Amino acid sequence: MSSISAALTQTSKEFSQALASKTSSGDNMDKEDFLMLLVTQFQYQDPLNPMEDQEFVAQMAQFSSLEQLMNLNTSMDGLTSATQNQQMVNATSYIGKQVSVTGNKIGKVTEADGTTSISTFRYAFGDNVREGVLSVMDGSGNTVYTETLGGKAAGSTFEFKWNGLNDKGQPAADGTYTISLAAYNSSGEAVMSDQVVDATVTSVVKSDNTVYIGLDGGQTMELANVRQVSQLTQTPVTQNQTATATTAQTLTTDTSKTDNESGGNS
């Protein structure tokens, strides 16, 4: 019995060392490790109390199921990666087009010629609004601009175009800004809002297994949040147009009711 105990002790020690090696290296146990455990168990089993056939078959079935699950997990990882790569390739067709993306991140960019480009923010309320406040906050969470909202009807789409000036009338720095809405109905209860940002796609990137689109305002937003894609189309020139106007650019967008607001100018 002493030899059997020594063998079992040696088996436990070897497996513990193998497990510790896996843990220290940051690796997870794989099917080879479980197979090693099973073979070692057979090698050092008690000859006076050997493993029953049914128990052996049960362990082999468990090992087979484990192997299939691991193979399935590997296949799913490959499928997920392939799907994300395909999404990225497909998203490149959005470059140069205008999109409406769920979110509240807008961007401000000043070109070399002094022209300022700012993303358009649109919102709609699920209930009639008596009063509210719209705030523009910088990347540090500081409020740079606020605007008081009057009564707003539920179901209507409203547009906010910030002029890029802070509450003191000074130009805000270029960068990404967050729009915050606080609105209340006639009972003083908070009203939820649906928010989208309109901008032109400039790039497509993948980070942490997520595909993002880069917008002309400098911000990035998840591809999955794109709700509408609009394309600039060439409109034929009519005979009433001047000879110098060869084409006219028109933007095909949603025809829903819109109430325009100009930030800082209201």
Short description:
The protein is α+β, with helices and mostly antiparallel strands and 266 residues long. The protein has helices at residues 2-25, 31-43, 53-91; strands at residues 98-102, 105-110, 116-118, 120-125, 131-137, 143-149, 157-162, 175-184, 193-207, 210-215, 220-222, 226-230, 232-235, 248-251, 258-263. The N and C termini lie far apart (93 Å).
Can you describe what's shown?
This protein is an alpha+beta fold and 266 residues long. 29% of the residues lie in helices and 35% in strands. The protein contains three helices and 15 strands. The strands form three sheets. Strands 1, 4, 7, 9, 10, 11, 12 and 15 form an eight-stranded mixed β-sheet that branches. Helix 1 runs antiparallel to helix 2 (31-43) and helix 2 runs antiparallel to helix 3. The chain is elongated. The protein starts with a helix and ends with a strand. The model is unreliable at 234-262 (pLDDT under 50).
Main attributes of the structure:
single chain, 266 residues, alpha+beta, Immunoglobulin-like, 2 domains
Q: Count the helices. How many?
A: 3
Number of domains: 2
The string of secondary-structure elements, in order, is HHHEEEEEEEEEEEEEEE
The dominant shape is elongated
What is CATH's topology name of the largest domain?
A: Immunoglobulin-like
Tell me how many strands there are.
Answer: 15
- List unreliable stretches of 5+ residues: 234-262
Q: Structural class, judged by helices and strands?
A: alpha+beta
